Amino acid sequence: MSAALDIQGLTTRFDTRGGSVTAVDNVSFSVDRGRIMGLVGESGSGKSVTGFSILGLIDEPGRVTDGRVMVEDTDLRSLSPDHLRSMRGRKVSMVFQDPMMTLNPVLRIGDQMAMAVRVHEPMSKTRALERARDALGTVGIPSPEERLAAYPHQLSGGMRQRVAIATALLHRPAVIIADEPTTALDVSIQGQILAEVRRLADETHTAIVWITHDLAVVSSLADDICVMYAGKIVERGTAEEVIGRPRHPYTRGLLDSVPGQHAPGSHLPQIPGSTPQLSHLPSGCPFRNRCPRATDVCATTPPLARFGDHTALCHHPMETT
């Protein structure tokens, strides 16, 4: 199956008073139709900037300086601003962490979803509302006809997030970028939405990039995982391989810090220190100042260690157990 999304060498820089910093550093990955790729890392690792870079939503002083972003057979970076806008929503959509970034608080749900349909496809408002109703039903919203008449503030947070996902699905895009869309929701609602997303990927064959800091979420949702640190992908593989046999010490540290992995009342391990400032990265491996396996060689650029289709950017990859 050909990739719905293929990214090669994506690089995004921000010009600051202290100089140019690289927030996304030569990132490459692909996602096939119907598969979910989890993009995981701490805050500041470059996950969200990667998502915004894919859709060309980086504002000054940021700029995408290099790379290719292929959605099916179209390179988004080669498009004019008008053509790129026409692709957003139709071929590639984004679900934001806060659904109110998608929903207009002064318009009814039906009106704004109908506008999202008609901006790309000429049709009557009645037909557009029918499609909006069907999309709401697809994501498990009860009584979708009634929800079309509601305003965003009349819905719960979980319901608003379902509306945002339904809006992203209106044109059956090839790719959806989901930027931590369940972070602010309680566990039960989060579980329901994750189950709906998994079902939608299977049924609609949409490729999904799920951006999150929560490895517990991607372990049950994603087919493949890319782990990011300081703008780089430091580990990549199937979810089974990355979760079950992590090769990079950073991934191991993230897994060890998940509370559910330990007995109640026991000490919770944590990765020492914090993510370095991009303007003051250490030489060589950016993780070396926090890494328990670091040696002098880690001050040089780490090689890409390969274990079949599973890779880790590390001088001292973890052994399997």
TrEMBL record:
InterPro entries documented for this protein: AAA+_ATPase (IPR003593), ABC_Ni/Peptide_Import (IPR050388), ABC_transporter-like_ATP-bd (IPR003439), ABC_transporter-like_CS (IPR017871), Oligopep_ABC_C (IPR013563), P-loop_NTPase (IPR027417)
Protein's UniProt keywords contain Cell membrane: yes
Membrane topology reported for the UniProt record: Peripheral membrane protein
Gene3D superfamilies: P-loop containing nucleotide triphosphate hydrolases
Gene Ontology terms for molecular function: ATP binding
Keywords from the UniProt entry: ATP-binding, Cell membrane, Membrane, Nucleotide-binding, Transport
Pfam families: ABC_tran, oligo_HPY
Stretches assigned to the ABC transporter domain: 5-255
Keyword Transport belongs to the record: yes
Top-level taxon of origin: Bacteria
Chief subcellular location: membrane
Localization, UniProt: Cell inner membrane
NCBIfam families, alphabetized: oligo_HPY
Family that this chain belongs to: Belongs to the ABC transporter superfamily.
Protein name: ABC transporter ATP-binding protein
